[in-house]
Amino acid sequence: MTNPNFDSLATGDVVAEREFTLTRDTLVRYAGASGDFNPIHYRDDVATSVGLPGVLAHGMLTMGAAGSVATDWLGAAGSVVDYQSRFTRPVPVDAEAGAAVTVTATVGALDAEARTARIDLKVVFDGATVLGKSQMVVAFA
């Protein structure tokens, strides 16, 4: 959908899908912007020393990137009134290949009186869901 319209939405509609790749460069840039310089996000030796499989993407980076799939679809047609997720699995970021994350945005519920839609985000890395109950409520004008 180029210009989403509340009246044309139905529960179950897939409104957007995208794959994005997080790289170590992405993590460095996010650390600088967020101030989160925890070494598990850039040093394999530190990450493995605390039992992790390697460098991990920041949870909020993953959540923000996933949310952008829905907000890019929404554009200027409405506004986000709520967005929440549960962090269910880490996203290890390989030094060379990065981490390919797939997001599918589906209409989960509609409220005709409030003219809001709940957009459910399925966020998957390596075949596993990494954000659980990831939902965004958007209001249409």
Summarize the structure in words.
The protein is an alpha+beta fold and 141 residues long. It is built from three helices and five strands; from the N terminus they run E-H-H-H-E-E-E-E. The chain has helices at 24-34, 44-49, 59-74; strands spanning 14-22, 78-87, 99-111, 116-125, 128-140. It has a five-stranded antiparallel sheet with strand order 1-3-4-5-2. Strand 4 (116-125) and strand 5 (128-140) form a beta hairpin. It is elongated, with a radius of gyration of 17 Å. The two termini are 17 Å apart. The model has no long low-confidence stretch (mean pLDDT 96).
Number of strands: 5
How far is the N terminus from the C terminus? 17 Å
Overall pLDDT? 96
Count of discrete alpha- or pi-helical segments spanning 4 or more residues:
3
